[in-house]
Specification:
Elements: H1 2-13, H2 20-25, H3 30-47, H4 49-54, H5 63-91, H6 103-129, H7 133-153, H8 155-158, E1 160-161, H9 164-169, E2 174-175, H10 181-209
Antiparallel strand pairs: 1-2
């Protein structure tokens, strides 16, 4: 495991490794993506709280829940697949060799990603029906902070790009800021953020029309 230490030293030596700009761009590894989709669920439950409070249907059958499923399926999962396919070992924080993960297990993982979003929505919806919007807001903020905090906490691993073998043996790693991963991470982060804002806006607009 000495190679992992070398990989960490290379990341630490990067002049941009710890800057806020780079930390934000690193907000797309799997743990951060899980926190983000949970936050998206809470945000959409907050946006649709008026419907949730009066609807006799189960919360997961409301309009805002369907909006979350569409957002997670059409944006969050494709972003996750993109990084898994092209930068899989980095995406998984070099904790496991992505080449050894069966395709069926990877598919289950992306289904779980949607499930985490629904879990966040269910938590937000439960608080909405209890009229505890302040608690929902705090949960949303905490989830978003966790998204960034995880990227910061793992910044040494995320500051280098390579395969699992390269990371564990300490050879052939490239700096996160030097290759194609940085612009890709920025683009995908912007897509996720804009997509969530648009989805929340649509739910709010539908609520006003109703």
């Amino acid at each position: 495991m000495g190679g992992g230490g070398e990989g960490g030293r290379r990341a630490h030596d990067s002049p941009l490794a710890g800057t806020p700009r780079i930390a934000l761009a690193r907000g797309v590894p799997l743990p951060s993506l899980l926190c983000f989709v949970f936050a998206a669920g809470v945000a959409l439950a907050l946006a649709g709280r008026s419907e949730i409070r009066v609807s006799p249907r189960p919360v997961l059958l409301t309009t805002s829940a369907m909006a979350l499923v569409l957002y997670a399926t059409l944006l969050v999962v494709p972003v996750g697949i993109y990084f898994y396919v092209l930068y899989g070992d980095w995406f998984l924080l070099y904790t496991v060799d992505v080449q050894r993960i069966p395709s069926a297990l990877a598919l289950v993982g992306f289904v779980i990603l949607v499930g985490v979003g629904l879990l966040g929505f269910a938590a937000g919806a439960s608080l909405a029906r209890a009229q505890r919007d302040a608690v929902s807001g705090a949960l949303l903020v905490a989830s978003l902070v966790a998204t960034a905090a995880l990227a910061l906490g793992w910044r040494e691993r995320l500051s280098v790009v390579g395969t699992y073998a390269q990371f564990t043996r300490g050879f052939g790693l490239t700096d996160f800021t030097a290759g194609s991963l940085l612009p890709s991470a920025w683009v995908m982060t912007i897509i996720l953020a804009v997509g969530l804002l648009a989805t929340v806006g649509r739910v709010l607009w539908g609520r006003r029309r109703g």
